Amino acid sequence: MTDDAPFGGQVALVTGGSRGIGRAIAIALAGEGADVAVSYRKDAKGGREVVAAIERLGRRAVALASDAGQPDETEDLVQKVRTQLGAIDVLVANAGVPGPRGWEAVSLAAWRETLETNLVGAYSLVKSARPHFASRGGAVTFVASISGLVASPELLPYSVAKAGMLSLTRSLALALAPKIRVNAVAAGWVRTAMTAPLHEAAGPRETLRKGIPRGRWGEPDDVAAAVVFLSSDLARFITGETLVVDGGGSLRWTAGVEG
């Protein structure tokens, strides 16, 4: 990006923005000039810390409690953002849950929770936000996963939800054209709380690292950079696309290790 505050005067909403990838996205957008609202489900302290970090950059910020799996809460979230910060220019659907491991013993309740939060929640967010976008239009980015592109039986509901998100990206890109662009990032192995059991264990950490052509695990800032690009005018003629951010890891998926 440039030194010209490409998001100056714009408002961004990042769900699941109190930690990890969401936090990195929120701060990166603020660093490029945006005022930012972040949502969180339980981590109020993390939300306050993100607000403080954004305000140190000279931007306005607000943290709001909201469960992505509850459409009524999503509607209320969007209304509050519009009231407190203004019309939305940038929308990032990042909130999600990992879901249960395994596949044979997965309960229907676990299936529903995973799909309702990760997939239906993303749809509900866009539906609620559409009337509140700026008149000039805007950009939506879904934070998906390479689990939606490659087989991942150990995280089956999560994988299916993320695959659905990629289809949702393409469909909404058509439905919301020409004024609103819709894209996705498919993140690979990124060091977050969700992947901590793997990156904190020497064996799995090294096995996965060796399978990534860039030679390292991803960091939240790597995904944030891709989201900033897709949300910016640099990507003005890009919509309905999925940008894989995995250091090349999915080019040769590591067999035998799921996450």
Question: How would you sum up this structure, described in words?
Answer:
The protein is an alpha/beta fold. α3 runs parallel beside α4 (108-129). Residues 255-259 have low confidence and may be disordered. Helices cover 41% and strands 15% of the residues. It has helices at 20-31, 44-56, 71-84, 108-129, 156-175, 196-199, 202-210, 220-231; strands spanning 11-14, 35-40, 61-65, 90-93, 138-145, 180-187, 242-245. α1 (20-31) links the parallel β1 and β2. The chain is built from eight helices and seven strands, in the order βαβαβαβαβαβαααβ. A seven-stranded parallel beta sheet has the order 3-2-1-4-5-6-7, sandwiched between helices. It has one domain (11-189, 219-245): NAD(P)-binding Rossmann-like Domain (Rossmann fold, 3-Layer(aba) Sandwich).
**CATH overall fold name:** Rossmann fold
Q: What's the end-to-end separation, in Å? A: 32 Å
The CATH class: Alpha Beta
What percentage of residues falls in helices of 4 or more residues?
40-55%
* Overall number of domains: 1
Number of strands: 7
What is the ordering of alpha helices and beta strands? Answer: EHEHEHEHEHEHHHE
What best-fitting shape do the alpha-carbon axes yield? globular
Features:
8 helices; alpha/beta; 259 residues; 15% strand; 41% helix; globular; Rossmann fold
SSE topology sketch:
Layout: E1 11-14, H1 20-31, E2 35-40, H2 44-56, E3 61-65, H3 71-84, E4 90-93, H4 108-129, E5 138-145, H5 156-175, E6 180-187, H6 196-199, H7 202-210, H8 220-231, E7 242-245
Parallel strand pairs: 1-2, 1-4, 2-3, 4-5, 5-6, 6-7
Helix pairs in contact: 1-8, 3-4, 4-5
